[in-house]
C-alpha cells in the first residue's frame, strides 16, 4: 500500500504533504493600559522616596497621542448594625433606592462613614492610593539570661551581689529580648483600573481592589511574665470587576466588620459603595 501511494505521488508530480492544523484563534483584543512600573528601589519598597506619590512611574509615550476621558472614582465604606442594614437593603431595588439609602445613612447617628476615598484617574489607566503606617513587630526572642552571680552570705560585697541577684529576680521575665523583626503595612490601599464599555453608552468596567489592615491587638505566647507578645492583624478586602453607570452608586460588597483578638462577632457590617463620574 505504501509503495502504491509513493508511486501515485511520483506519477502526478506532487509530494505527499501532511495535513496542517488549523491556526489558533487570536486572543480577544484588550484595551491598552498604563502598566509601567516604577524603576529602582521604589519598585520593591513602598516607603522609598517617590514610591507613595507615584513620581517614579514612567509616562508612556502613546498617552500623548490618545484622547482619554478623565474620570473620578468614589469609594465609601459604611459601618452599621448587621440586622438593621439587612432590613434596609431589602428596600433597595434601583439606583434611586440606593441613593436614598445613602442619604439616610448620613442622617442616622448609628451609621459610621469609615472610609471616603476619591481617586482621580483616566480611562484605560491604573491608579493606586495608599494611607499606610508601617508596623514593625518581633518574630524571634532570646530567652532570659542567667543571674549575674551566686549571692554571698556576708560582707559589703555580699550585699552588692545579693542586691543584683534580687534585681534579676524582680525583672527576670523582662530579659526576653527580641532579635528578629518583620514589617507589616497597616492602613488602607485602593487600586483602580477603568475601561470604557463599547456596547453601553456612559458605562465603565471598573477593576477595583481595596484592602484595610489594622492592628487588632497583641497576643501573649508562653508565660505571661515572659512578655513575649505577637501582633494580631485584622484585614478586610474586596476586589473584582464591576460595571458602573456614570453618576450612579452601586453596592460593591457587604461584609462582616473586622473582629478583635477575642474573635467574637461584632454584630456590625461594612457596606461598600462605588461610583464613577466624568471629571469634565
Account of the 3D structure:
The protein is of the alpha+beta class and 280 residues long. It has a domain of 162 residues. It is 17% helix and 41% strand. It contains 4 helices and 8 strands. It has a 4-stranded antiparallel beta sheet with strand order 2-1-8-7. A 4-stranded antiparallel beta sheet has the order 3-4-5-6, with no helix packed on it. The longest helix has 15 residues. The radius of gyration is 32 Å and the shape is elongated. The N terminus is likely disordered.
Helix content: 10-25%
Determine Rg (CA atoms, Å).
Answer: 32 Å
Order of helical and strand elements: HEHHEEHEEEEE
Main beta sheet: 4 strands, antiparallel
* Average pLDDT for all residues: 79
Number of strands: 8
Total helical elements: 4
The percent range for strand residues is: 35-45%
Properties at a glance:
single chain, four-stranded antiparallel sheet, alpha+beta, 8 strands, disordered N terminus
Write the layout of secondary structure elements.
Layout: H1 2-12, E1 70-81, H2 82-89, H3 95-107, E2 112-122, E3 125-142, H4 156-170, E4 177-196, E5 203-220, E6 229-245, E7 250-256, E8 268-278
Antiparallel strand pairs: 1-2, 1-8, 3-4, 4-5, 5-6, 7-8
